[in-house]
Design brief:
This protein is an alpha/beta fold and about 325 residues long. The protein is about 25% helix and about 25% strand.
């Protein structure tokens, strides 16, 4: 089978197509014919060696945490899945397994779920890592109904889900993004937009119960300036040590730090399915590339300016797509 992989840790030059053996399912496992997979910051961080030695030392290293496709085969003890059934889920490249940027993928059955009705393979592949990260981050903040939520990087892969899910849960959401994407942010649930290219959200006098940094680029001290007493700072990346002043601020009722992670629990997938069925959550696709052009997908994601998710298509497409087509 074909896969997009790295031959060593390093920059984009270490990536390319590789020929690998077809996987066989072990007990409790499912083999999926992958039709679409997304690109996440996790992928280029793995390539750069950020997670060594957790990700293992075997090469080629196949990237891809999110997948959507059809069941090819099931292992001993697996029930509820038959060949040809459309499924999606999250792989585990951090565990040393091959990821989803390949024609076929073997994963534990617990990581495989029916695709929510009405979604294409490309849309389904956009959901797991990003949307599950948002669910975890907001869940750990308690109820956000009636509260003010600020989403930084609001039209990014994670951010556009944060806008939708926070809005669906009754929050008053403010988006931080480029002015050119303001209309998209409003359509996704924001009631206010801060132009990140010409305004500094840290100078605003308004306070927010939750500040959700969807791109992991904001330090805690900066965010704390606009967080209400007892509020939360949610980030998608571990933050640097916050220092004595921040610790004292928290002890006195100041912001609490939440590092959001995609836990991938069955109940989280059930919540996602309900949000999709209700129309409150819909994946936005920035661009779709064939597996042979996965280099370009990585370049778009690493540039940090995508609107929604960057997808790699494997196999036959759901619908004809230009190679670089931004949805309107």
């Amino acid at each position: 089978m074909k896969a997009f992989a790295a031959r060593s840790h390093g920059g984009p030059e270490v990536m390319g197509l590789a020929a690998l053996p077809d996987p066989d399912p072990g007990p409790g496992e499912v083999v999926v014919d992958v039709h679409a997979a997304s690109v996440n910051p996790l992928d280029w961080m793995l390539r750069n060696g950020y997670f060594r030695p957790r990700s293992g030392r075997e090469f080629p290293l196949v990237f891809g945490a999110d997948f959507a496709g059809t069941v090819r085969a099931v292992g001993e003890g697996v029930t509820g899945f038959t060949p040809g059934v459309p499924v999606y889920g999250d792989a585990s490249p951090l565990s040393g397994r091959h990821g989803a940027h390949a024609e076929r993928l073997v994963v534990p059955a617990a990581r495989v779920h029916p695709i929510p009705q009405g979604l294409s393979f490309e849309q389904a592949a956009a959901l797991p890592t990003a949307a599950l990260t948002v669910l975890d981050g907001l869940w750990r903040c308690g109820s956000v109904r009636g509260k003010r939520v600020l989403v930084i990087g609001a039209t990014s892969g994670v951010g556009h889900f944060a806008l939708q899910i926070a809005s669906a849960r009754g929050a008053r959401v403010t988006a931080v993004c480029s002015e050119v994407h303001a209309e998209r942010a409003i359509a996704l649930g924001a009631v206010d937009v801060i132009d990140q290219d010409h305004e500094d959200f840290r100078q605003w006098k308004r306070r927010y119960e939750v500040v959700f940094d969807a791109q992991g680029g904001v330090d805690f001290e900066s965010a704390a300036r606009v967080i209400a007493r007892g509020g939360h700072f949610v980030t998608t990346l571990p933050v640097r040590p916050v220092g004595l002043s921040a610790l004292l601020r928290r002890l006195l009722g100041g912001p609490r730090i939440v590092v959001a992670v995609p836990r991938g629990r069955a109940e989280d997938y059930a919540v996602l399915a309900r949000l999709v069925a209700s129309g409150r959550v819909r994946p936005v696709l920035d661009s779709v590339f064939p597996l042979e052009r996965a280099h370009e997908a990585f370049a778009v994601q690493e540039a940090g300016r995508s609107v929604g998710k960057v997808i790699i298509r494997v196999g036959e497409p759901d619908v004809p797509w230009p190679a670089r087509q931004r949805l309107q």
